[in-house]
TrEMBL record:
It comes from Odobenus rosmarus divergens (Pacific walrus). Its main location: cytoplasm. This is TBC1 domain family member 7. Keywords: Cytoplasm, Cytoplasmic vesicle, GTPase activation, Lysosome, Membrane. Component of the TSC-TBC complex (also named Rhebulator complex), composed of 2 molecules of TSC1, 2 molecules of TSC2 and 1 molecule of TBC1D7. Interacts with TSC1 (via C-terminal half of the coiled-coil domain). It is found in: Cytoplasm, Cytosol; Cytoplasmic vesicle; Lysosome membrane. One of its GO terms (cellular component) is lysosomal membrane. Gene3D superfamilies: Ypt/Rab-GAP domain of gyp1p, domain 1, Ypt/Rab-GAP domain of gyp1p, domain 2, Ypt/Rab-GAP domain of gyp1p, domain 3. One of its GO terms (molecular function) is GTPase activator activity. One of its GO terms (biological process) is negative regulation of TOR signaling. Residues 50-231 form the Rab-GAP TBC domain.
């Protein structure tokens, strides 16, 4: 029996006895023991499998460039990251932009604004749409990551990835959504068009915020594994699967306003199944892309 067939046999066995992911966890642990972490292999793993929660923050930090591939540098680099975090926070406190009473996600926003040269003249200035996106993502990450330094750096680099790496791709996602929904259920797409709902779907919530505030964090982080590791197109298939899952409900609604309102507040108890089916749908249409939007 070849190594691959042995592995496949073991995976099937583990899944049957209720230990799904045991082999994948072992594979990831082997990757993480390399003296120099292989970014390509970590991306491939993250695209194929959900990351075990105990390793997710580490893998994300490596893939987002917060930590270097070399293990021996991790402690020192995180010390520098912490020093930078404290310096920026102190600067904001000195100019009285934040205080002990400031909500933590707003502190992260002000830190990000200061570092990117976009800090407004006063904390009372109204937030820009991009600030609202940042806060939504920050609230989600805050639920996933306990350490405040790790939390800030993951938010910062995740948002930068959206604004830079995916900048050209994100505006194209609504069109891709229409394309794949048509392939999966043309009748449902026709209903959206008949109700003039297609252009009014919550694309900002789905694509700009990457479903932050729409899906619970336990489901969301499985989607973000794919975004962090190289594909924002997974967002399209989550949106498609939401429509397919709630097809009966959506088909019963006859106005764009009602459809949009429902999709902005979908039932949370279906989210795990939606994400699992969305990932299957993504692999069905796109294979296992690596480093591609």
């Amino acid at each position: 029996m070849t190594e691959d067939s042995q592995r496949n046999f073991r995976s099937v066995y583990y899944e049957k006895v209720g230990f799904r992911g045991v082999e994948e966890k072992k594979s990831l642990e082997i990757l993480l023991k390399d003296d120099r972490l292989d970014i390509e292999k970590l991306c491939t793993f993250s695209q194929r499998f959900p990351l075990p929660s105990m390793y997710r923050a580490l893998v994300w930090k490596v893939l987002l460039g917060i930590l270097p591939p070399h293990h021996e540098s991790h402690a020192q680099v995180m010390m520098y990251r912490k020093e930078q975090y404290c310096d920026v926070l102190h600067a904001l406190e000195v100019v009285r932009f934040v205080s002990d009473a400031t909500p933590q996600v707003e502190v992260y926003l002000r830190m990000y604004q200061l570092e990117s040269g976009k800090l407004p003249r006063s904390p009372s200035f109204p937030l820009e749409p991009e600030d609202e996106v940042f806060l939504a993502i920050a609230k989600a990450v805050e639920e996933m990551v306990e350490d405040s330094v790790d939390c800030y750096w993951i938010i910062r680099c995740f948002v930068n990835q959206l604004n830079n790496k995916y900048r050209e791709f994100l505006p194209q996602l609504p069109k891709a959504f229409e394309q794949y929904l048509n392939l999966e259920d043309s009748r449902l797409l026709s209903h959206l068009k008949t109700c003039s709902a297609l252009s009014r779907l919550p694309y900002d919530l789905w694509f700009k915020r990457c479903f932050a505030g729409c899906l619970p964090e336990s489901s969301l982080q499985r989607v973000w594994d794919k975004v962090v590791s190289g594909s924002c197109k997974i967002l399209v298939f989550v949106a498609v699967e939401i429509l397919l899952t709630f097809k009966i409900k959506v088909m019963a609604l006859n106005s764009a306003e009602k459809i949009t309102k429902f999709l902005e507040n979908i039932p949370q108890d279906s989210s795990d199944a939606i994400v699992s089916k969305a990932i299957d749908l993504w692999h069905k249409h796109c294979g296992t892309p690596v480093h591609s939007a």
